[in-house]
Amino acid sequence: MSYVVLARKWRPQGFDDLIGQEAVVSTLKNALSSGKIAHAYLFSGPRGVGKTSSARILAKALNCEQRTGSEPCGDCRNCKAITEGHSVDVLEIDGASNNSVEAVRELRETVKYAPAGGRYKIYIIDEVHMLSTSAFNALLKTLEEPPPHVVFIFATTEPKKVPATILSRCQHHSFRRVAKSRIKEQLRKITEAEGITIREKALDMIARAADGSMRDALTLLDQAYSFSDEITETELHTLLGLPESEIIFNLSETILRGDIPQTLSIIKELTDRGNDLRQIAKELVEHFRNVTIAKITGNAGDLLEFTEEEVKRLRDFSSDVGIEELTLLLTEFLRIESDVRNAVNPRYVLELGLLRTSFVKGMTSIEQVLKKLDAGPGQDYVRESAGTPSRAEIPDKPPAENKAKPATADSDIKTAVADKEGLWQRLLEHLDAEDHLLACKLSEAKLVGLTTAELTIGFNGGMSVLADSIKKNSSVIEPLLNRLSGHKIKLKIQALPQKETKKDIDKIKQQVFAEPLVQDAMRIFNSSVVNVKSLGEDDKE
Q1: Is the pLDDT score of 173 beyond 90?
Q2: Which one, 86, 139, 223, 488, has the greatest CB density within 10 A?
């Protein structure tokens, strides 16, 4: 007899064999026990979590000849025929290859015939989202009012691609990713039954690499068992191209230090060993995600399904790193992982991405900047870390060479004048905090100029009411302006030329076109007037 892979050999044959889908199993069992059978089901969820297996189990339970409760017996003629895949009453259709409207019309023709040996005629359509729009439309009427002996079971990994008209006619069951601990438990059960020698850490690696898919976990186990009779973490590193956890930790430490030469050296070592750089990028994303969760949550062990020792190591690793820096790094690694996955030269893309992460090391968070500002001019702020005070002590008598020359009032005023836009924006912001209405009126003004003695603003001719209001409240604005600039500056308000309307511009154009000199120029040069612009006050000067 030919070899049967573990994923097929250990495929669930009953509801009790399904791993990690307790909610779906409970619902289907209750429906079978009470006889509340829907005419259409939709099973959605990630790959390898038991959608198609559940459809077959449900089909067996519906047509089982010896079922007493909700579990199929597995021994009757109908159960065996469905398990072996040759039951005439259960039709499995691949939605990807039978997605045309003609295929659905043929299905509709067969629906009206009664089942041959079972109670129900069951249609299992896998990857149903691949059906064309016309095929879905052709299925609607049959799906809404099928014969009493017909049950449809749809399976898909992308329920969002299924039309709402189909979804509304189905009983929808969402399948979840299988927890790492449940995958590991099932793998241990299978290895013991199959006589496979495997170490505990290797089981952890397979369960983590499966990413919630029980089928993927069995496929990886099968591959590892074919490679070696005794499966260890070393064999898995070699076979699957997974980087060792210690290397990931070392690489992460060099990234946090901003040590680019050492980072590139580790990447070269991993490349020379034949590791998959796409997998490395994925591992980095997962590692920094785990570090972030361990730092910000108290129940990281439950969320990550890690031991206390593993969580403690992650927290020790992140003890000197701020949450802002971790967030920036994780965002950058997500971008790197996406770029590396689709890159022609993954190594170059990974190296460039890791070079970008070194810039994050030199960034200062907003909290750090605020603390530095709070330190005042007489103290220097030092970035907080484990065992480091937030502010450094300043000697009573600093060395002469370190003494900075006192800034003159004149130099301070020149600095304020140079940053007139910045001063104007700060004035509006602070005034808005004290008097929002007055700030709105002031924001309508145009900043004309700033000197060491006065701030000049202007209003258009049609805004004289606002200009008068600002003049009346100058006693409120000028103290705030003096406080922000550090100097006594007067507020000066002037009227700006009123903007011309379209009617005014059209009138000017008519006057220009009527000028004999303009007409002669247009005739001599065989030209036309493109634009007419009125000279403002600035242009006249």
Answers
A1: yes
A2: 139
